[in-house]
Design a protein that fits this description.
Signal recognition particle alu RNA binding heterodimer, srp9/1, four-stranded mixed sheet, alpha/beta, 8 strands
Length: 121
């Protein structure tokens, strides 16, 4: 069995909120979009990461996902995000912190998702 990617579906009440976090802040690019359709969605990509974003208010109320993204340079990501979009910093993990399990972490959140950035020592 050869698996190559895990691609989550993420639901937002307003897909524009998702684009602010993922495209504007984290610099994902839109690979495919149907943002002006009756059921707006898009595929976002960055490096080897991919995610499907959907505007679906009912499902958005039921799902509040949390993701971990592993990086080789967490300090660079933190500096860029904290200077350009500090409003997304999670109040419980606003700085790069060495955690008891040996990983450096900081987190972002909007009203729908939490993203924990992680770098193993």
């Amino acid at each position: 069995m050869n698996l190559t990617r895990l691609i989550p579906n993420v639901y937002y009440s307003d897909i524009q909120d998702a684009l602010k976090l993922f495209v504007d802040c984290l610099e994902f690019r839109i690979g495919h979009e149907e943002l002006n359709s009756e059921n707006p969605f898009c595929v976002i990509e960055k490096d080897e990461l991919c995610m499907y974003l959907f505007e679906h208010p009912k499902l958005a109320m039921e799902h509040q996902p949390e993701f971990r993204i592993v990086s080789r340079d967490i300090e660079e990501i933190y500096q860029k995000v904290s200077s350009s979009h500090p409003e997304f910093l999670h109040p419980n993990l606003t700085t790069v912190t060495l955690r008891p399990w040996g990983a450096k972490e900081f987190a972002l959140r909007d009203h729908q998702v939490c993203i924990i950035f992680q770098q193993w020592e």
